[in-house]
Amino acid sequence: MRVMSIQGSFGLEHLRPEERPEPPAPARGQVLVRVRAASLNYRDLLTVVGVYNPRQRLPLVPCSDGCGEVLAVGEGVTRVKPGDRVITCFAQGWPAGDLTRDRARTTLGGPLDGVLQERMLLDEGGVVRAPAHLTDVEAATLSCAGLTAWTALTSGGVGPGDVVLTQGTGGVSIFALQLARLMGARVIVTSSSDEKLARARALGAWETINYRTTPAWGARARELTGGRGVDHVVEVGGADTLAQSILAARPGAQVSLIGILSGTTTPLDLVSVLMQGVRIQGVLVGHRDALEALARAVEAHALRPVVDRTFPWTEARAALEHLQAGRHVGKVGVEL
Ligand SMILES: NC(=O)c1ccc[n+]([C@@H]2O[C@H](COP(=O)([O-])OP(=O)(O)OC[C@H]3O[C@@H](n4cnc5c(N)ncnc54)[C@H](OP(=O)(O)O)[C@@H]3O)[C@@H](O)[C@H]2O)c1
To answer: Given 1.10.357.10, 1.20.140.10, 3.40.50.720, 3.30.450.40, which CATH number is that of 146-282?
Structure first.
């Protein structure tokens, strides 16, 4: 069977097709999945270029988020049956509870081989039934970006009437916009592009701020809430955005620290955090039970993830370059 793998050394030019033996019949507790679609994350790009984990052993099949059909199941499998459509869990060994170091080592697309392969064997606990109304690519977007936004918002107890601020219009942030609206919150979206902000308004954003033309967007967000401040910030910018996020936040707000798009270290005025009791909460995707809860919510509300563009999997490199260029809104998909 064919896979796409990073071969020899890191770099987009080293992502190439490879022929591998068919997986064996599923053993006890395992499922064999025919992968039909994948969705890309910024992490996949960082993995392929060797920034995410430079010590990762190669060859590696990248990408964590897949959707496919169960072809066969091993003895004792009860969660799914042949013919079911499933999505892959980002961390294969994290069913529920807190993240541990061992659980963090079970992520697809590094250190474990990811979903850019025609067929793959997984433990039954590493897959979740896909919502019926979604296409394969749409369903694949839930594994990481969807679940990360869900974990952030649910851990922050977002509810009706809250104001959530999201940064940019990438995969995680657009999911956060859609899910926060589903939870009854109003959403302020920031972006570098007025065109993308118009898309965000069409998707239900309450207010929008261009962070290029309004560098003091934290104060602007506070103004938009009548001086109260926002209840929750979905922080994906990292180094260059955290200080503005804290300025935007109301006392007691949660800043969900998810991304580091602009860097990993920043001087921070600690007084502003402690005097306002702001909670900075690190988020790492989420566990399987949360993915199941997300899939139920998405199905119940017929929510459709926003897919910017889909590529054939043989053009995975072009798909990653599209993600790298940053012109997308929402998710970039790959069809196998
Ligand atoms: N912790 C976790 O569990 C987790 C899970 C998923 C992703 N992440 C991380 O979260 C970040 C976003 O991931 P993604 O998959 O959503 O990425 P993405 O789809 O590539 O989206 C990136 C978008 O973020 C915006 N952006 C870029 N630099 C920014 C800045 N300095 N300030 C504000 N916005 C900025 C841009 O939107 P505009 O063009 O609209 O300005 C850009 O299009 C990445 O760092 C990723 O590694 C973390």
So the answer is: 3.40.50.720
**Test site for ligand 1: of 141, 213, 236, 280, most ligand atoms within 8 A of the Cβ:** 236
Question: Architecture of domain 2-141+305-335 in CATH?
Answer: Alpha-Beta Complex (3.90)
212-249 pLDDT tens trace: 999 999 999 999 999 999 999 999 999 999 999 999 99
Q: Can you state the angle between helices 147-155 and 171-182, rounded to 10 degrees?
A: 50
pLDDT in the model for residue 98:
96
137-149 pLDDT, tens digit each? 999 999 999 999 9
Q: Which of 39, 40, 42 to mutate to test the pocket of ligand 1 (most atoms within 8 A of CB)?
A: 42
Instruction: Check: CB of residue 12 under 8 Å from CB of residue 51.
Output: no
Identify residue 93 by its one-letter amino acid code. Answer: G
**Residue ranges covered by each domain of the chain:** 2-141+305-335, 146-282
- The finding on whether 323 has its CB within 6 A of some atom of ligand 1 is yes
Q: What pTM did the predictor assign?
A: 0.98
Report yes or no: 245 and 230 within 8 Å, Cβ to Cβ: no
Q: Is the CB of 240 under 6 A from ligand 1?
A: yes
Contact 301, 308 (CB under 8 A): no
Round the average pLDDT of the chain to a whole number and report it. Answer: 97
For residue 259, report the distance from its CA to the centre of ligand 1, in Å: 6
> Closest residue (by CA) to atom 23 of ligand 1?
170
Q: Which two tokens stand for residue 264?
A: 């990993």
Ligand 1, residue 212: give the atom nearest the CA: 41
